[in-house]
Structures are given as structure tokens and as C-alpha cells.
Amino acid sequence: MNNFFRDGAKRTVKRSLVRIDNRLVHGQILESWVPFLHASSIVVVNDEVAGDIFRESVIRMAVPRDIEVVFCGIDGFAQRQNSEQEGDNRGNTIILFESIGDVIRAYRLGFRFEALNVGNVQNKGDRTRKIGTRVHMSDGEIEDLMMLVRLGVDVEIRSVPRDRSVSFAEAVGNARGD
């Protein structure tokens, strides 16, 4: 995340968790995932939040001072991740995307990750399929995530660390009654 971190150091992000959660930074992230992962930073990848001084300020106020928060647009984030091959990894990072579409866009731009956590996808619009307790998807979103699974990404449904991790393929099969 070149020039985004407080110290200005050039470094790649040690990805401890890549997560989809329409709420972005909230209690489950701060009270469960940060301590579980011993995370030292959170990267919010969202075109609407990045550059919105008010929204960035509200999120920063909620996050403890010892946790660094970085805001990036999707294109810039993916490009930086692609161009940086070396760096100083200082601690674990949680990377948050608001939507499945945002993750897919970053992936198509070259951002690669081994695992994806789906924590919360709001039930709205054409999201008629309930995949998990707090996860609703459209058929198109299911297909997008199945593409990632076929490409070798371990996609799980899990709200907090203490919950059982459910593979996306299993969750979709259960939702279909397979």
C-alpha cells in the first residue's frame, strides 16, 4: 500500500483476512476479528468511502488508535497490490470490501488472495437467496463467487471467528437443498 501507511513506508499488505461485509468497519470487526488475528491495520477498499472525509473520520473515530486504518478506491488498491512485490510486513491486515461486486472487480484488476471471508451481505434488491445467517445473494453474485472457488480461492461464510466456517460451495448446496 505504497504511501498509504502512517510512516510512508513502501510495503505490501500481509493479508490476514480479506472480507466482504456491507457494514465495513463495525463491532464484529473491532471486537472479534482484530483481536483474533492480532491485526495492526485495516484497509477499507471502497470507492465511495475513499476520499469522503466525513465517512473516513467517522470510521477512524470508531477504531482504536493502535490500529491503522487505510482507505483506498478499488482500482488504486488493486494496482498497488499488483506493482508491489517486496516490502516490510508489519503485522496482520484486515482488508474489507463492501460488496461481492467490489471484490470481483479487484480480482479482475489483478488483486489475488487465497481466501475470502463472506461475513455480511445485506438482503436487498435481487438478493433473494439466503446463503447464511447474514448472507443474501443474487444468482449472479453466487456465480461470481463460484468462479473464485473454481480458480482456487477458499471462500467461507462466517460472521465471527467463534462461528463454524462453512465453505461457500456447501452453503450454496444447503440453500438449494442439494
Structural account:
The protein has helices at residues 27-37, 53-62, 74-83, 100-108, 139-150, 168-176, and strands spanning 15-21, 39-45, 68-72, 92-97, 115-120, 129-132, 135-137, 154-157, 166-167. By secondary structure, the chain is an alpha/beta fold. The chain has a domain at 15-120 and 153-163: Phosphotransferase system, sorbose subfamily IIB component (Fructose Permease, 3-Layer(aba) Sandwich). The strands form 2 sheets. It has a 7-stranded mixed β-sheet, sandwiched between helices. It has a two-stranded antiparallel ribbon with strand order 6-7. Strand 2, helix 2 (53-62) and strand 3 (68-72) form a beta-alpha-beta unit. The model is unreliable at 1-11 (pLDDT under 50).
Principal-axis shape: globular
Determine and state the CATH class of the domain at 15-120 and 153-163: Alpha Beta
Hey, roughly how much beta strand do the residues contain? 15-25%
User: Which parts are unreliable, with pLDDT below 50 for 5 consecutive residues or more?
Assistant: 1-11
CATH homologous superfamily caption of the domain at 15-120 and 153-163:
Phosphotransferase system, sorbose subfamily IIB component
| Average pLDDT figure | 85
Largest sheet: number of strands, sense, barrel closure: 7 strands, mixed
Structural class: alpha/beta
CATH-scheme architecture of the domain at 15-120 and 153-163 = 3-Layer(aba) Sandwich
| Residue share in helix | 25-40%
The helix/strand series, from N terminus to C terminus, equals EHEHEHEHEEEHEEH
